Amino acid sequence: MVVFPNCKINIGLHITSKREDGYHNIETVMVPVAWSDALEIVKHDQKKPDESLLTGKAESGKVHFYSYGIPIPGNAEDNLCIKVYHMLEEWFELPSVDIHLIKNVPIGAGLGGGSADAAFCLRALKEYFDLSISDSEAKKLLGNIGSDCPFFWDNEPSFAYGKGDDMRRIELQLTNKWVLLVYPNIAISTAEAYSGINPKQPSIDLELLTNLPIECWNQGIVNDFEESVFPKYPSLMEVKKRFYEIGAIYSSLSGSGSAIYGIFSEEPTIPTEWQDYQFWVGRFME
Hints:
Blueprint: E1 2-3, E2 6-18, E3 24-36, E4 38-43, E5 54-60, E6 63-69, H1 80-89, E7 97-103, H2 113-128, H3 135-143, H4 151-154, E8 158-162, E9 166-169, E10 178-183, H5 190-194, H6 225-232, H7 234-245, E11 250-253, E12 260-264, E13 278-283
Parallel strand pairs: 6-7
Antiparallel strand pairs: 1-4, 2-3, 3-8, 4-7, 5-6, 8-9, 10-12, 10-13, 11-12
Helix pairs in contact: 1-2, 6-7
């Protein structure tokens, strides 16, 4: 069973208040983008890993986890895919499995790559073993793993609020637009990004985004994390400015950073100074 966990961007992101549980209340619009990892689930020992390509591996109970591509920081035993399997074990009798993950989406970029891996792993396990899990049960399980995780279950443009795991579908007409994502080789943890935030009430209701032409978004659709991230990493602000110079209709930091994206009417040309960065360009997902 092979799946391709895609990432997301945030169009506008407001941190509205600090919660008693230590989290923050937010409001944002999340949109899926096709820059993807690759994840394969097989029964244990059905496929041997290529040891020369491994960047990480772990064994936890009946799960054998192998990662390739971008090295994943921290202990491999803490990977969200392993957590998904163990949560399912509380409901079902599962056989031993091997999980192979090729990591392409940058880490610490605000693109939700780890959350997508968790959601797609759950869907793959559900289909591979024909597990009886409702959509609401799946989203509840994923919400216990991470606030972004439930978004990737439906994987459609959504207005997210509360901790970010409550959401409503939003109609955005972006399929005829191009999106370019740039990761300027800077990893920003969620804790670091939140450390400089002062919660405040938003000046605009992001659920009204569908009523605003994209050409007007740069006049009021903002990501609050730019206030704390850009002063610390001025190069990110320069990347955003460069987006507008090469013709972006709208540009913003994604999530808590550090990826910057631009939306274009036509396929953009990548500036030569970005060749050392990781980037992805394509049309929005339908």
